[in-house]
Structure formats: C-alpha cells, structure tokens
Amino acid sequence: MGPASNSVQGALLRELEQTPEVDRRHRLLAQIGHQVQEILGRETPSSLSPDQRIFELGMASLNLVELKNRLEVGFDVELPVTLFFKYGVLGQLTQHLLTEVLALAPREAEPAETAVLPEPALETQGTAVEEMSEAEAEAELKRRLASLEGE
Hints:
This protein is mainly α. 52% of the residues lie in helices and 3% in strands. The chain folds into two domains: 3-108, Orthogonal Bundle (Non-ribosomal Peptide Synthetase Peptidyl Carrier Protein, Chain A), CATH 1.10.1200; 120-149. Helix 3 packs across helix 4. The chain starts with a helix and ends with a helix. Residues 1-5 and 109-122 have low confidence and may be disordered.
C-alpha cells in the first residue's frame, strides 16, 4: 500500500479509540452510516437506527462487499464475508464489531449468564412430579392453574 492508503489504514479504529467508551457505539453507527452514504452516492446524510436491517438500506451485494472492504481498511482487520448475514441488524453489527472484532467495549452478559435461581422441586402431596404418570401430572397442573385463576 502506498503512503496515502497508510493514513487511511486503521483511521476508523483510531477515531473510535479516542472516543469516550460511552459514546463508541453511537460513533461506530455514525461511521457505518457515513460509509453507506458514500457507497450509495447520497449527499444528504441520513441517520441510521440500531434497529435498522442492513438489507433495508438499499445496498446491493456489491455495495456490501465495498462496505466490508472499507471497514476492513478503516479498522485494519479482516472481516468474514458472511458478516452482514450473521449480523443483519445495525445494532447487532456495531455490538459485534465493538466487542468481538475491535475489543473496544465489554461484552454484554448473555441471558444465560444472568443469575438463575434453581427451580424448587415440584411436589404434590408428597409425590414428586417426576414420579407421577402423565395423566396425574396433567391433572395436578390443571388443579394448580385453576387455583391461580381463583386468586
């Protein structure tokens, strides 16, 4: 790469690194929006919503390849060709780029990692549900549902 491309190589990454952590997600979304506007040749910038799907932006497959290439140069990373299929919503894409690719944000806790209280053993008059026949378990469930509706 020539000297001109060296100044571009990693430029988006350097900009994000200098952005306060609380603003990085918003800044990355704006960076992606800017790249999309340039690729599509739009002069008037439009703001992107994190809930917006990438394929709703009017990008053809060649445009997506161009966006991937620009992000690779801007962040000085290699990205998979399936990036926009796997992370098809802009919020998912920005989260993935910040946490997994660039490591500029802490990972959000997965729902499975949240504290889960153990389920109490379901017992009915001294008989564990596991020991009941299917008909007995169904009858007990109906009885409990009826008691809840009556509350």
